[in-house]
Amino acid sequence: MTGQVDEFVRSASPEPHRARTQEILRRHPEIRELIGTNPATFWWTTGIVTLQLALAYAVRDQSWWVIVGVAYLVGAFANHALFVLVHECAHRLVFRRQAANLLTGLLANLPLFFPSATSFRRYHLKHHAFQGVYELDADLPFRWEARLVGHSLLGKALWLLFYPFFQMVRPLRLREIEHVDRWTVANLIVQIGFDIAVVLVWGPKALAYFALSLFFSIGLHPLGARWIQRHYLTADGEQETFSYYGRLNRLAFNVGYHNEHHDFPSVPWNNLPRVKAIAPEAYDHLQAHHSWTRLLFRFLFDRELSLWSRVVRSERGRVRLTDEVRPDAELIERAAVTK
Fold it and tell me: Cβ contacts of residue 231 below 8 Å, gap of 6+?
């Protein structure tokens, strides 16, 4: 990439993962054995929620410097992990029954301050099905968002700092999506009730800890570079999805294995490294990141790298709605998307 560009990169090709999934399955049909659920994820969710509750209680009467410091150094990692577990629930990778996954998502959402678990599921599945389609992929920035942020260090830093707000409004752009249902309402009621209870029982500083942990977990923090790592064009060529193979995957439930996840979205987090190990010829030649911190500073200071550094496509991937997720008939998302 050379020069500052104020437009998305347009592609006439379908999203890249469907064809690679077919090729990998042709060479390595044993990967199908990795598809399934991981009920242990529920216990990880319970443990991290408990940790966050304990930390909120511990800092409820502390100075603001202590609250900010704990939120940045500990709470951000815990909340980031909970976002990943919400993501697992969205793909029905914890339990086989949809209701059990949705309830686990509501549990994981509690320390995340804003109600987002059920709405995330809806727009995230569209992202998998229609990667790069502006009207269907909420992972893409708004055009006005990219113009507003621009190429400057300050603009990009403020964008990361307030990223949760931008992400909340993007789904409103999407077509073919029902924004409100009973689970969305339940998520809203449960989360508001939890936030009010925290304030009444432990005080406003405890709730502020949750809010700060949220903003740091997906904002101006090395963890925030994950949003850049996944689909921003950080290398020359046509590659539009990037994995991260750094040490923080251990604290982030292997969420960095993003090419592997897009290729096999019904493989739970614990099996994603095995996908890469089984099919190294599919992944070893791809560009990947090994440091979120390095990527964060590159994004902030490289004026050529901006919110415009994304691929958009106008066609739907040359698939029907009933075929939109992946060619693997066992993939759980198919039923969820086509309801």
Answer: 131, 139, 240, 241, 242, 310, 311
Whose CA is closest to 45, among 88, 90, 76, 98? Answer: 88
pLDDT tens for each residue of 75-112: 999 999 999 999 999 999 999 999 999 999 999 999 99
Give the CB-side neighbour count of residue 50, counting CA atoms within 13 A: 6
Residues 249, 158 contacting (CB under 8 angstroms): no
pTM of full prediction above 0.85: yes
Chain position carrying tokens 């901006």: 306
Query: Which DSSP string do the residues of 199-212 spell out, in sequence order?
Result: HHHH-HHHHHHHHH
Give just the sign of the alpha carbon dihedral 254, 256, 259, 265: positive
Q: Can you give the pLDDT at residue 285?
A: 95
Identify the band that residue 146 occupies on the pLDDT scale cut at 50, 70 and 90: very high
**Are 338 and 332 a contacting pair, CB within 8 Å?**
no
pLDDT tens digit sequence for 252-269:
999 999 999 999 999 999
Sign of the CA dihedral with 133 first, then 238, 261, and 5 last: negative
Band of residue 238 on the pLDDT scale cut at 50, 70, 90: confident
* Residue (of 296, 313, 5) closest to 150 by Cα position: 5
